[in-house]
Every structure is written in structure tokens, then in C-alpha cells.
Here is the input.
Amino acid sequence: MSYFTEENSEEAVSARMGENVSPRLRQIMDALIHHLHAFVKEVELTEAEWEVAIDFLTKTGQICSDTRQEFILLSDVLGVSMLVDAVNHRAPDGATETTVFGPFHVEGAPERQMGDNICLDGKGEICLFQGRVVDLEGNPIDNALISVWSDNYEGFYDVQQPDIQPPFNNRGIFRTGPDGRYAFRGIKPVAYPIPDDGPVGKMLATLGRHPWRPAHTHFMVTADGYSRVITHIFVEGDRYLTSDAVFGVKKSLIIPFEKVDRANEAWQADFDFVLCRQKQNKG
Ligand code: BEZ
Ligand code: FE
Here is the structure.
């Protein structure tokens, strides 16, 4: 057994793991140690730079609370969230593509009747969202649950403004019938910046990056026997589609929002969710 050197650093650390470490954890830790050490060697990290990194990670942890998750934001802006999503959801052609979950989903949103309006404060441009939940062959899926959540007309989620917005504003769950159809009213979403008043926002500014996400509505679609789909639909023409701060945009998820002139809605967005059976997922 030799002492730690620059040359043997990876082996020196990996070799300390005990015999009872599970093979998967060993694989992950070996790879993590390998890439971390290679990174330090490649850039020849200075002590001052390492201190900056430690300070950044400390501040990232310190700003976290029940309602603020700065580490998820960090993962999002570094493209790690989208990469983990890609590796785990290699769905067949034709299946609805997945994208980043984001920090603003909340449990317990009410189940609503088809056609209901999820915009509880009456602010924003009302949009009819409609379509079907189908399988890869186009057959309707009965009893699928569609959970939707969206920012408000000013770009804030209800949980970001508990004193301003009613609870579950712009949120709801809808259950399909045998025809697989869904329809509800909400608002045409608007672009918004991810929370950028913390260390991640400061990092983006230092790197010359903006914090904006293109306008989108979030969906989580589940049905017995099918892989869960967590996704968004994006508003065609949004200026941030090609520079989303969290890399969440996929071409298949960009749809036209049609201007309509009806008594109870100003916009219409049509989108079908295509689910694959659990065994059809490649990932
Ligand atoms: C969101 O779309 O809600 C979101 C995603 C990633 C970071 C921040 C917000
Ligand atoms: Fe969002």
C-alpha cells in the first residue's frame, strides 16, 4: 500500500471503500472519483478557485428551504437534469417526449371536471387546452390522469406568491374517459426567469447567461400499465425557445397557440399525449 500521490490519487481514494459496498454504489463512486480527480488535474485547480467552489456550494445549501431548492436549479442550469431525464426516458419514436420536472410541482392539486378553468384568480389570457391521451397505436387511454401546472399571467407559480395567488391557482388534475379526450381552460403561459436571486442566479450572470425560460405549461400524465410522462408544451414563437435557461425545449413539444375569438377563451392549444406501455420504454 502506497501513500497518496498526484499520480495514484484515484486509486488511493477508491481503494478505501469497504467490501460490503454494493456493486452499483461502487461503480458510481469509482466513476465520480475518476471524473472529479481528472477535472482537478486537467484545469490544475488553484486553492483560491477551490475555495470559491466550496463557498458557492455552501451558499447553495444555505439558501435551500422547504420552498426553495437551489441544488435542483443548479442541476437544471448545468444540463444535468435534462441529461438524467434523457438517459432514463429513451422512449420509442412517436411517444411524447419528456422534459425537466422543475421545482414547482406540488402534491394535492384538486381533481377537476373536464372543461373546468384552472385559473382561479381570473388573470391572464384564457386558453382552451384539449387533445387526447393515446397509446403508440393511437388507441385512446381510459382513466389516464393529467396533472397540469402553470405560471400565472406575470410569470409566477402560486407557491412563489402564497400571499397573492389562491392555493392551486393554475393547477389541476383531469381524468380521461374511454375516448381518451381531455379539455380544460387555463391561461396562455408567459416566459419567466427561474429564481435568480441566489448563488445559481449569480453564477448565470457571471457566465453571461440569462435566467429565462420560454413560455410553457407543465404536464404529468399517468395511466395504469403505461410509463409516466413528465413534460411541457411550449408556445411556438417564444423568444427564449432556443436559449431556455434549463435546456428543456424539444421540437416535438413546441405547438402553435391559435388565437380564437370566443366568449370564454382567447386562445386554443391542441396536443395529444402518446404514452408507451411500461415494457416499451427502452431506458
Ligand atoms: C419550471 O419550469 O417550473 C422550472 C424548471 C427548472 C427550473 C426552474 C423552474
Ligand atoms: Fe415552469
About this structure: Helices lie at 9-14, 23-43, 47-62, 70-77, 80-88, 199-206. Residues 75-280 form a domain with the Protocatechuate 3,4-Dioxygenase, subunit A fold (CATH 2.60.130.10). The mean pLDDT is 96. The pocket of benzoic acid (ligand 1) is lined by residues 73, 76, 100, 102-104, 194, 213, 246 (CB under 6 Å).
